[in-house]
Amino acid sequence: MITRGLIDQLMKSGSDLMQNPSVGQAKTAATDKASQLSGLLGGNAGSLLSGAGGGLLAGGALGMLLGNKKLRKTGGKLAMYGGVAALGAVAFKAYQNYQQKQSSAPQGTPETLDRLPDAQAEQHSQAILRAVIGAAKADGHVDDKERALIDGEIAKLSGDAELTDWFDRELRKPLDPTDIASSAKTPEMGAEMYLASLLVVDEQNYMEKAYLTELARQLKLDPVLVTELESQVVGVS
C-alpha cells in the first residue's frame, strides 16, 4: 500500500487550484454536484488519470473530501506545499526552531518525512493521510453519499485495492482524535500530522478548531512546538 503517491496527488491538486484558475474553476464545478462529476468522467476515466486530467480528478476527490467552501479557503495553504516532502521540510524547520527555544525538547536532527528512507517515509505518509482525513471530517459534512463518491474517486486515483479499502475504513470510522494520534510513532511524525491538519481545517469553524486543539493534546505536542507549526501557515489564505 503506497499512500505517499495518493496524498501527493491530493495536495498538488490544491496547489494547481491556486496556480491555474481555469483548471481550478473546472475542479470546483466538478465537485459541486455528483451528476456533474459523473458526466465529466463518463467513459473517459482512463484519459483523466494522466496530465491535467489527473489533476482534475485529484481536485474532484479533494473537493468532495473537504467540501468546496473549505477547499476554496485552504487552497492557498496547500499551494505552499504541493506534496508531502515539502510538508516534511517545513515540519523540519519548525521542529528545529522548537529545539532552539526549548531546552527540554528532544535533541538531534529531526527525522521528518523529507529525510527518511522509503519504508519510513511511507509510514509517515500514512499517518499524515489519516490526519488529513480526520481533519476533513471534523465539520461533520462527509455523509454516506459523499463517502461513496470519494471512495470511487480515490479508487481511480490510486489503482490499489488495499489503499482504497483502507481509505474507505478511515472515512467510515467515527471521528476520534485519540485514535488518529495513535499513528504518531515519533514526535516528528506528530508534528507532521498536526501541520497537515492545520492545512485543511477552517479555524473559524468551532467544531474544527476544537478538534485541532484536542488533536494537539492527544499528540502530546509541546505548546511551543504547536506555536512553531502554526506560524508556518499564519497569513496564508
In a few lines, what is going on in this structure?
With 237 residues, the chain is mainly alpha-helical. Helix content is 72%, strand content 0%.
Polypeptide structure, described:
With 237 residues, this protein is mostly helical. It has 2 domains: 1-82, no CATH class; 83-140 and 175-237, no CATH class. The protein has helices at residues 3-19, 21-32, 34-41, 51-66, 68-79, 84-101, 118-137, 144-158, 161-172, 177-181, 187-200, 206-218, 223-231. Helix 4 (51-66) packs across helix 5, helix 7 (118-137) packs across helix 11 (187-200) and helix 8 (144-158) packs antiparallel against helix 9 (161-172). It is globular and about 50 Å long.
SS elements, strand count = 0
The overall pLDDT, averaged over residues, is 77
What is the CA–CA distance across the termini?
A: 33 Å
Regions with pLDDT < 50 over 5+ consecutive residues? 21-53
Radius of gyration: 17 Å
Beta-strand content estimate: under 5%
General form: globular
Largest sheet: none
Helix content: over 70%
* Total of DSSP H or I helical runs spanning 4+ residues: 13
Secondary-structure content class: mainly alpha
The number of domains is 2
Order of helices and strands: HHHHHHHHHHHHH
